[in-house]
Amino acid sequence: MKLFSAALVSATLIVSSANAGNLIAPVMEEEVIVEEASASSGSDWLIPLFALILFAAAVGGGSSDTITSPIN
């Protein structure tokens, strides 16, 4: 009986000392993320200008009728 209670007491002390100090959650620092603004390139206007030129050429291209009249 003494051997059983000695083993029980020693097991209790070992388990309680293993869990001691684990009561508070660890404090984790937040990671700061800095996003740099993208530098605007000077070619932002090229694509709309090219589209406008293509549209103007398509609309004002004139007649594509190349058949000549056989009557003189």
Please give a handful of descriptors for the protein shown:
single chain, Ferrochelatase, 44% helix, transmembrane helix, 72 residues, signal, 2 helices, mainly alpha
Describe the structure.
The chain is mostly helical and 72 residues long. 44% of the residues lie in helices and 0% in strands. The chain is rod-shaped, with a radius of gyration of 43 Å. The chain crosses the membrane at residues 44-62. Residues 1-20 form the signal peptide.
Rg, rounded, reads 43 Å
Low-confidence stretches: none
The tally of helices reads 2
- Indicate the percent of residues in helices: 40-55%
Given helix and strand content, the structural type is mainly alpha
> What is the average per-residue confidence, as pLDDT, rounded to a whole number?
75
Largest sheet: none
Give the overall shape, derived from the CA principal axes.
rod-shaped
What's the number of extended β-strand segments? 0
| N/C terminus separation | 134 Å
- Give the helices and strands as they follow along the chain: HH
Strand content: under 5%
Summarize the structure.
Residues 1-20 form the signal peptide. The protein has 72 residues and is an all-alpha fold.
